[in-house]
Amino acid sequence: MTGETSNGISRHRDLRERWLKQELQGGIIPEFSKQQPLSDGTEDGADLESIEAVANEVLQMQMPTTPAQLQNLTAEIRERVGSLTDVEDILNQSAADIMRAESLLEQACKARLLKLESDVALLKEKALNTSTSANSTEKEAESINALAEQLKKDLDSELKDKYSSVEELITQKAEGVAEAKKRAEKLQQEAQNLLL
Q1: Tens-place pLDDT, residues 155-177
Q2: Cys bridge to 5: 97, 141, 165, 171, which one at CB 3.0-4.6 A?
Q3: Cut 0.70: pTM above it
Q4: Cα-based angle 183, 187, 191 (whole degrees, multiple of 5)
Q5: How far apart are the two ends of the chain, measured CA to CA in Å?
């Protein structure tokens, strides 16, 4: 609530209280003024005893019955209504305050809507970034897997080549050993033959 709105309501409340006090002190409702204090306008409601007391006071009141009493009451009412010149100002100020409050409410709603739109856009961007990051990670994983497969093939091929070379060497060595053994046996046989 702005300062102007608060001042307008406070001013309206002060005027209402002043008028009621004048009415009560002027003797229009003398019994009520003696028994019940004026509210400061901050209470939301009265208790049942207070309501019942006011209702009984009103029921016991007597309306003016003579023309003179009616003329006096009419003159007094006109005088009081004439003293209420600020009512139009209060109503105008209240209307301006209401328009301003509605404008502020509309601005607050728009600001909140803009904030929500901004948050949604940010969430969409984060989701897109996460999706892009996931796609990138998936592509990197595929690339790493392909590289690993290629390395495996290369290693398998290289190992097969080396295995074949080693196997060939072993075969050659085995053949050489077999020939050497045969030769050694042949030489041994020849040596035995010479000794005999």
Answers
A1: 888 888 888 888 888 888 888 88
A2: 97
A3: no
A4: 170
A5: 137
Task: Give me the DSSP letters along 105-150.
Answer: HHHHHHHHHHHHHHHHHHHHHHHHHHHHHHHHHHHHHHHHHHHHHH
Place of tokens 């097969």: 160
Nearest to 1 by CA among 94, 120, 123: 94
Closest by Cα among 142, 35, 13, 16 to 5: 13
pLDDT in tens, 72-131: 888 888 787 776 666 677 777 778 888 888 888 899 889 989 999 999 999 999 988 888
Q: Which residue has the higher pLDDT, 2 or 156?
A: 156
Closest CA to 85 of 41, 19, 28: 19
SS3 40: coil
Rounded CA separation 23/184 (Å): 149
> Mean pLDDT across the stretch 151-156?
86
Nearest residue to 18 (alpha-carbon basis) of 71, 86, 73, 66: 86
Q: What is the 3-state secondary structure (H, E, C) of 154-188?
A: HHHHHHHHHHHHHHHHHHHHHHHHHHHHHHHHHHH
* Amino acid present at 11: R
* Integer Cα distance of 138 and 130 in angstroms: 12
